[in-house]
């Protein structure tokens, strides 16, 4: 081509562009055919590739296809979905759009025909764990390859090493994690690579990762998050000549930050070392990297105070120290971060108040100080932030501190705020009406404070609020419809545990579509709120304890088919339920529902049906289930009208771990199949069950609570309870007809905190080996208690315990209770002194047995004891002086024994009334018997102690003889002798006796 011809062509092209017209080029037929073949193996549920068709004309105009304007060749294929994640509070429809937008299927080799392709992006699709095709390594013209987040699986094909022109390679964050890479040698030929992301690839055996990546001369960004890197690889000279961004987050690096990082001081602008195991002091060597704009050291174990040098970075825009053990006050030097935009010091041990120098952070956009121990008034914090960034601050998180004071109208002046979280503090007062001025606000959480008063009646300006949580405060009053009129984008509304009332007009239609509504403890009744039926995206609803007394409308049970969580408990709702279509969790407790138990969906995990009037047998609910494999974890049926035998068809309910069927009318034996489920909690209390306990229950090694009290079980206490249930914390066999001895194997239950064997026919002596019940010998603090399972506090019925002479319910503090009840049996022998080793015991009831001997001298060692009942036994001797040392004792019953002598003096023992001591031979306060009348001595003391068993028996016999003699003398000389001495007295006495006899005769007739 001549020079003039070339100039002519260039001029023509230039004129075309100047006129705003596109060159008349179309894609080649071969490349169009390659794209159509590629589409054949793609599953496109959202029809994103609808423009890709034989009749679709120029393929350069197809979605995701980019062509060279001069040649028409396809050079870029961008097939990532429109959004890499769904909206935060996406509706069902939006979720559906998101999931359908992901391409599926497999990658067709027809891509090899795109000889001019330099950019291939298939990220954030879903290829179902298929292998990354090795043929991609033959597309040697590629400079950009992005397969991140596309759910590929298997090993990385080493053929990718042939792509020597690559500048950008992203294989990270595939949810179907890639197999381990034993080496990264295949990367060594990437002389032009600037961006590398292998996040999620197991590099624990790739000891060459540092050496290989260090030799990539153009590398600017290195992302190796979650790659199972641990200690430093072999020592080499590190010199990343171009590196700007280093991400080694979420690995196992410890205990010190690798020293080679600090040699990169000439280039780095971003370092992410979060989620490792670094400890000690934050290395001061970081300050040598003066170019840093982003530093993330979160979720490690740094435990020093905040050093001043850390705030000397003039260019730092992002700093996160979240989730360490940093302590002390926030230093004034924090005001030196003149470029900071995002500051995160959350989840540490910081205390005190915010320094005034914070007002110098004029560029601050996001501040997170949550989960610390800051003590300050919230108006002071708002004042400091107002002076620095009232117009710029977008996010403020200070939840879980010790903040107090009232929210002021100044909050409404932060025009750019989109996120506010002040929850779990001690903030009081009203929610200011000025909050309606925050037109950008999307997230508001002021839950778990002391806010009172009413909600603003009207929000004057439209708001973009999507999430509102005002739950667990002290608000009261009437909520108007106007409050909701300007928050039409509301998706989550949590306001439970307030005393608010909401009674809209019957034709009110909410202007919002919520996914979550929590209005527990509001007053919404007495009619069932009909406005709920307009919430088409509702997945979680709580209207518990809302004063609703009504028949549940039929539309509601059809409406629940989308619900994941439903709580309508503690109302007075009525009706029968044929089919409960809720997924995951349904709480219908404490209502008036009747009829047979409803059918449920197979994916339900938690069911609360207790305190209703459900009736009939369990057979149809359990044995006739045909909807699929049930996922049920918790089933609470307590306090209903269920009857009949427990059916023997539990095989398909293998997921149940918490079962409560107490307080019903169930009869018969416990079926063997029930024992194979692997329970954590099993409660069958107060039924009419009988027979012996099936040995299959020994399979429940994880059992924490077994309560079969108030039934008709017989036989001996099985030895396997102690051998096979090592984690038992609660064992109640109360009010049955168990007989025989307590097996020594029960002493192996070292986690046992509650033992109730009362009201049975047990006999023999109390085992001395009870001293081995370690949990009862330990003072409970709840902090390190394995009964964290009592977060199921509402999953299991509140445990009934006989303490302080009464039947009491314990729920939230059950993990802190330690009690032993052996009352109303036939135990003999002495109270073992070994019981005094159980220093953590709070209640001990040994009443109504045949125990003899003395109360152990060291009873005062039970320093946590709140209740002691040893009444109606044959105990003798005196009350031990050590009993007066029990400072927490609030219930004492020693009545109807053979105790004698002076009641020891102490504020505690004299605070009980005389009925605690009645039926003994005791003297001194609080009873009226004066010890001086009895000589003021305490009998049965031998050399300062109670002596041995032989001497004790002799003294007892001796005292019986003395008592008989004294009784004779008192009776004779106090009554008969005066009659013999005085005839006047004798006549009066006999006349009185005759009068009483005549009166009794008349009553009898």
From TrEMBL:
<keyword id="KW-0433">Leucine-rich repeat</keyword>
<dbReference type="Pfam" id="PF13855">
    <property type="entry name" value="LRR_8"/>
</dbReference>
<keyword id="KW-0597">Phosphoprotein</keyword>
<keyword id="KW-0675">Receptor</keyword>
<dbReference type="InterPro" id="IPR001611">
    <property type="entry name" value="Leu-rich_rpt"/>
</dbReference>
<dbReference type="InterPro" id="IPR046956">
    <property type="entry name" value="RLP23-like"/>
</dbReference>
<keyword id="KW-0732">Signal</keyword>
<feature type="signal peptide">
    <location>
        <begin position="1"/>
        <end position="20"/>
    </location>
</feature>
<dbReference type="Pfam" id="PF08263">
    <property type="entry name" value="LRRNT_2"/>
</dbReference>
<keyword id="KW-0677">Repeat</keyword>
<dbReference type="GO" id="GO:0005886">
    <property type="term" value="C:plasma membrane"/>
</dbReference>
<keyword id="KW-0812">Transmembrane</keyword>
<comment type="similarity">
    <text>Belongs to the RLP family.</text>
</comment>
<dbReference type="InterPro" id="IPR013210">
    <property type="entry name" value="LRR_N_plant-typ"/>
</dbReference>
<protein>
    <submittedName>
        <fullName>Disease resistance family protein / LRR family protein</fullName>
    </submittedName>
</protein>
<keyword id="KW-1003">Cell membrane</keyword>
<dbReference type="InterPro" id="IPR003591">
    <property type="entry name" value="Leu-rich_rpt_typical-subtyp"/>
</dbReference>
<feature type="transmembrane region" description="Helical">
    <location>
        <begin position="958"/>
        <end position="981"/>
    </location>
</feature>
<dbReference type="GO" id="GO:0007165">
    <property type="term" value="P:signal transduction"/>
</dbReference>
<dbReference type="Pfam" id="PF00560">
    <property type="entry name" value="LRR_1"/>
</dbReference>
<keyword id="KW-1133">Transmembrane helix</keyword>
<keyword id="KW-0325">Glycoprotein</keyword>
<feature type="domain" description="Leucine-rich repeat-containing N-terminal plant-type">
    <location>
        <begin position="30"/>
        <end position="68"/>
    </location>
</feature>
<keyword id="KW-0472">Membrane</keyword>
<dbReference type="InterPro" id="IPR032675">
    <property type="entry name" value="LRR_dom_sf"/>
</dbReference>
